[in-house]
Amino acid sequence: MDDRTKRRLLVGFATTLVSKAASTEIQLVQVPVLFHFWGETVFGVWLVLTGIPTYLSFSNIGFGSVAGNEMTMLMARKEQEAALSVFQSCWWLISLVLGVTVAAMSLALWLLPMGRLLNIETISEHDVSWALFWLGLAVLFGQLEQLLQSAYRCIARYSPMEIF
C-alpha cells in the first residue's frame, strides 16, 4: 500500500471517528439540556415530533447509494462522462421526488390537524405543523447529501480533509 492510500485511509478513519464522537457528545449533552429547559412534557412532545421524520429516514430510498456505487465503478473504468451523467440524472430524480414530497407534505400539514392527530396539547397546531415540516425537510435533503457524499467517494475524495 502506497503512502497516499495510507494517508487517505487514515484521514478517512479520523474524520469518521471525529464525526461519530461529536454526534455522540451532542446527544449526551442535548438530552439533559433540553429536559432542563423544556421540562418533561415539552421534551416528550419533541421526542414524538422528531421520531416521525427519523422513522421515515430509515426508509432511505437509496438512490444516492446506488448512484454512488455506479459512479465509482464507472470512474474505476475511466468513464468520467458516464459517471457525470449518472450523477446528474440521479440529482434531478432526487430533486423531483423531493419537490413532489415537499408539496404533498406541505399540503398534508396545512390541511390536517397534526397536533390533534398526534394527541399533542402542549404546543399549538401551528407549531406542530412547522416542526414536522422542518424536520421532514431535513430528512429529505439528506437524500441529496448522500448523493453528494457518493460523488466525493467516486473521485477518491472521501474525506473533506483530503482537499488540504
How would you sum up this structure, described in words?
- With 164 residues, this protein is mainly α.
- The protein has one domain (39-158).
- It contains 5 helices and no strands.
- It has helices at residues 3-58, 63-76, 80-111, 114-117, 125-154.
- Helix 1 runs antiparallel to helix 5 (125-154), helix 2 packs antiparallel against helix 3 (80-111) and helix 3 runs antiparallel to helix 5.
- The longest helix has 56 residues, at 3-58.
- The two termini are 21 Å apart.
Q: What's the layout of helices and strands?
A:
Blueprint: H1 3-58, H2 63-76, H3 80-111, H4 114-117, H5 125-154
Outline:
flat
Multimeric organization:
single chain
The helix count comes to 5
Major sheet characteristics: none
Helix content: over 70%
Overall strand count: 0
Succession of helices and strands = HHHHH
| Gap between N and C termini | 21 Å
Detail the poorly predicted runs: none
Radius of gyration: 20 Å
What is the domain tally? 1
**Please, what is the average pLDDT?**
85
Structural class: mainly alpha
| Content of β-strand | under 5%
Summarize the structure.
With 164 residues, the chain is an all-alpha fold. 83% of the residues lie in helices and 0% in strands. The protein contains five helices and no strands.
List keywords for this structure.
0% strand; single chain; 83% helix; mainly alpha; 164 residues
